[in-house]
C-alpha cells in the first residue's frame, strides 16, 4: 500500500490546488483589496473544493507571477497568514507549494502543519524564469534540520515553462531521481498549468519506477481523468475546477463534484 492511501484514505487521491491571489510584494497585488481579499478568495476556493469532494488540498502562490526560484520572506509570511486563518475550516489533508522554492515550501509546511510539498527539487533547467538550478542535497539537509522528515516531498520532474538542460529522456530522469533522492512521489506535467499530461509519458515513468507514487500533475479534466488514473497513482488538479475551466477564475463547486463523480467510478 502506498503512503497516499494511508494519508488520504483512498486509492488514487485527487489533490486540488487552492491558488492564492497575488500577495504583498507580488507585481499584481491588489493593495486596495489587501490581504482580506486574498483570505476570502482562498476561503471560497477551499470550501468549494471540500464540498465538491476532493481528497486533499495544496495551497500555492499560483498568482505570484512571474515566479521566483528563491521566494521572498514576505510571500511565505503572507501564505502562512492565509492558511492560519483557514486552518479551523480545513477538513482534509493539506500541503503547500511556494513556487519555485523547496526550502521555502518546507519552512511553510512546518509552520502550518502541512503534510506535503510539491516542488522542483532536482535538476537544472533553461526556463522562462532564467537559468534554473536546484540543490537537492541542501534541501534534504534543511528538511532534516527543521524537523520536516514527515513532510512528504512530491518531486515535479517535468517543470512547467522549462526544459532539462541535459539531453536525457524522462525515464532516465525518473530512475536517477528515485535512486539519488528517494522522493515520496514524482509529478509528471504538461507544458503549462492546465496543459494535458501525455498519458504515454505517464506510462513510461510508472513502468520505470513502479514502486514510487506517480502523480499526473496538470491537465486532467472530467473527460480524461479515468484514462489518466488508469496509469497514475493520483492527480494534482486545478484549472478544470475553475469557473469555465479558466486558470484565472475562482473554483466552481459544481465542476468539482462532476469531476469527482468520474473519479469515484475508477475506484
TrEMBL record:
It comes from the Bacteria. InterPro entries: BtpA (IPR005137), RibuloseP-bd_barrel (IPR011060). SUPFAM superfamilies: Ribulose-phoshate binding barrel. It holds the Pfam family BtpA. PANTHER family: SGC REGION PROTEIN SGCQ-RELATED, ZGC:162297. Belongs to the BtpA family. NCBIfam families: thylakoid_BtpA (TIGR00259). This is BtpA/SgcQ family protein. It comes from Guopingia tenuis. The lineage of its organism: Bacteria, Bacillati, Bacillota, Clostridia, Christensenellales.
Amino acid at each position: 500500500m502506498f503512503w497516499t492511501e494511508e494519508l488520504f484514505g483512498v486509492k488514487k487521491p485527487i489533490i486540488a490546488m487552492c491558488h492564492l491571489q497575488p500577495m504583498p510584494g507580488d507585481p499584481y497585488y491588489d493593495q486596495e483589496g489587501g490581504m482580506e481579499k486574498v483570505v476570502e478568495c482562498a476561503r471560497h476556493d477551499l470550501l468549494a473544493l471540500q464540498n465538491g469532494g476532493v481528497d486533499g488540498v495544496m495551497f500555492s502562490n499560483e498568482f505570484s507571477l512571474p515566479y521566483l526560484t528563491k521566494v521572498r520572506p514576505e510571500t511565505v509570511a503572507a501564505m502562512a497568514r492565509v492558511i492560519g486563518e483557514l486552518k479551523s475550516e480545513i477538513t482534509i489533508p493539506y500541503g503547500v507549494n511556494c513556487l519555485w522554492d523547496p526550502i521555502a515550501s518546507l519552512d511553510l509546511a512546518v509552520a502550518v502543519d502541512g503534510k506535503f510539498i510539491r516542488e522542483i527539487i532536482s535538476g537544472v533547467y533553461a526556463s522562462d524564469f532564467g537559468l534554473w538550478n536546484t540543490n537537492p542535497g541542501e534541501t534534504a539537509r534543511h528538511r532534516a534540520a527543521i524537523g520536516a522528515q514527515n513532510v512528504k516531498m512530491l518531486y515535479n520532474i517535468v517543470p512547467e515553462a522549462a526544459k532539462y538542460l541535459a539531453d536525457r529522456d524522462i525515464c532516465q530522469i525518473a530512475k536517477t531521481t528515485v535512486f539519488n533522492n528517494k522522493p515520496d512521489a514524482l509529478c509528471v506535467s504538461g507544458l503549462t498549468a492546465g496543459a494535458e499530461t501525455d498519458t504515454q509519458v505517464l506510462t513510461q515513468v510508472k513502468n520505470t519506477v513502479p514502486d514510487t507514487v506517480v502523480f499526473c500533475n496538470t491537465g486532467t479534466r472530467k473527460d480524461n481523468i479515468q484514462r489518466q488514473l488508469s496509469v497514475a497513482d493520483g492527480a494534482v488538479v486545478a484549472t478544470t475546477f475553475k469557473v469555465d475551466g479558466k486558470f484565472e477564475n475562482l473554483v466552481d463547486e459544481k465542476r468539482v463534484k462532476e469531476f469527482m463523480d468520474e473519479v469515484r467510478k475508477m475506484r
